[in-house]
Design a protein that fits this description.
The chain is α/β, with parallel strands linked by helices. It contains 13 helices and 14 strands. An eight-stranded mixed β-sheet has the order 4-10-2-1-11-12-14-13, with helices on both faces. It has a two-stranded antiparallel ribbon with strand order 3-5. The longest helix is centred in the first third of the chain and has 19 residues. The radius of gyration is 21 Å and the shape is globular. The relative contact order is 0.18.
Length: 455
Amino acid sequence: MFWGFCEALNFVQEYRKILAAEDPLPESLNVLLFGSGDPRHILATASQLFLHRGVQVNVYLAEGCVELLARHMVLLAIALEDPQLLSLKGKTHLFMDIYGNSLVRPFSSAYLSTKAKELTNIITDPEYAQRQAPIFSYEALRYKERDQLADVFRFWTNAPEHVFNIARYWEERLRVQLGVRYDHRNGAFDWDLQMRLRENGATQVCPQEYKHWRETGVAFTFPEYEQSDPNKTFAVGLVRNGKGFVHRGSVGDNLTGPYAAFGQKCAEERLSRSKHGVNDFRSTDITERNVLQIMYEIQERQHYRFDPKDIHQFGSHQLDTGKNLNKHDARTEPVEAVRYNKPLLPCENLTVHLLSVEDVLRMHELDRFEAKFDAIFVASNYFGLLKDGFSRMWKDSCLLCFETRQLTVFSQDEIKEHIEQIKAYAQKQSLAAVTNFSINKTHSVLSYKHQGAYK
């Protein structure tokens, strides 16, 4: 729910794959992210847009709840913060903290509380939004959804009545999930990792980081940090209740983890080395390297050159990261010393459109989306929501990318069944395969090309 299960895709690069060698990129590229869960594809695309200054990319976000739209906004805002407020390494670790950890550093909690006030102004004042964050377009949101977003941002601020005891919710959910196996949970975690996740292809995930995440909800750890405050971006179903809020507690994935998006592979093959099944680098370290590259290229608008000194290397180390100092208490004292209210870094040829939650299941019925999109990404858990008229939204030569369940803890039979459903849908819609199925390898994304008029 809060993250996807495939690598981040640069959609300009992906779209180029379906073009003939002599064909130029279109001046405008409309991309629909149907339930992506996180902004990984937006960030991967944005980081390379300095190479395609003549292409205007419009990304349309379709998510099932406003809390996910709010999470998209704050994660993108981190990447676009003014360098005078956050260094590249600061952006990288802050992003990882809020992206994948149920408990975050006090600094991250303070940033979230301060940024929530800025995002409230952005979502409620169009003129202010145009000055501060022109990358976002929320014209498609209904007024009640804008009010709901403002409530979400209000909940993120540090106040005594904004309680989100994620550590307790996580533990209670884990006890119910495992039942009598709870007392032997380390064995259950190890089985899920070795016999499911790594067997399915997520070999970069190390036992120490996966087991720690399954136990605590904290996926990304470094020895210089201590995660102690609740990550309120994981709260969904928020409803005002007097001065406070009620919510649904701990929801979303607690079996696979937030490692697939940025922590599966990178340009330097040596970072994927392992000896006797022990990786030199954790998935956390690979995530750090890839996110740092994205932050650098968005800010500097030039190619990133990898330096091993830029990242950690703890593949074979067991870090002492279990204290979580005040994990059962929400931070309520005012700790926001810095105001993160400078305009976001400009990204002139990228606009992110927030779509109404109420329109997600009936987009194909709306005339404004008819033959609208050049590229579409469909998340694995949204595949079952595709309607018969979904193809009305495709342009000729539309690229369709379907996320599989390959990099998850689903069984091989479940993964194969889902892939066969995707292939059957593609055959029904007369889609041409872009993914090379003749190569004997697994795929976290299956890509197809639509040809001809929509159906």
